[in-house]
Amino acid sequence: MSLRQRCLVAIVIVLSLISLPACHGEPGKGKAVTSIQLTAPNAVCQQNGASGTNVTMGQDGVSWTTAPSSATIEIHFASGCGFANGCDYGPTNGPISSGGSSLPNGSTIQYSSIKLGGASCNVSGAGLVMRH
Questions:
Q1: Whether 96 contacts 23, CB under 8 Å
Q2: pLDDT value for 18
Q3: pLDDT tens digit sequence for 98-125
Q4: Taking the alpha carbons of 27, 84, 115, 73 in that order, is the dihedral positive or negative?
Q5: Which among 77, 64, 72 is positioned nearest to 33, based on CA atoms?
Q6: Half-sphere exposure of 129 toward its Cβ, with a 13 Å CA cutoff?
Q7: For labelling, which of 14, 20, 29, 72 has a CA lying 20 to 30 Å from the CA of 5?
Q8: Cα-flanking dihedrals φ and ψ of residue 5, to 5°?
């Protein structure tokens, strides 16, 4: 292989290493809606099986469901919650979509109240944390 060919190969390799990582985007960004299943054993609200926790969400928002899927869901946040579809949802059968979120990275929003199947449950400090 001539010197000119080796230089060309080296340039192609360097350019590939520089440009390929840009094709993948940043971790955590994309069009992924965060799925949360709400349950209320012993009238304590749970998100994905845990009570009193904050679930991390992205800019594309949240989709809430409950079991059984025929049960109604009603969710309320304080005004200014930052969701495209508002701060009050339901009562309706799931899934419920929040729409995108305009919250700054690291913001935490707490649920004001949650009702599943018409029965209130204890929110216990549960909420959502925005991560871009």
A1: no
A2: 55
A3: 999 999 999 999 999 999 999 999 999 9
A4: negative
A5: 64
A6: 9
A7: 20
A8: -65, -40
Task: For residues 103 and 125, give the distance between their C-alpha atoms in angstroms, rounded to a whole number.
Answer: 19
Per DSSP, the residues of 75-132 read EEE-TT--BTT-SEEEEEES-EE---B-PPTT-EEEEEEEEETTEEEB-TT-EEEE--
Mean pLDDT of the chain: 84
Structure tokens at 20: 């390929």
Give the residue with greater pLDDT, 48 vs 67.
Answer: 48
pTM: 0.75
User: CA angle at residue 28 from 31 to 129, to 5 degrees?
Assistant: 95
Q: For the chain, give me the number of helices (H) and strands (E)? A: 1, 10
* The amino acid at 5: Q
Please give the single-letter amino acid code of residue 95: P
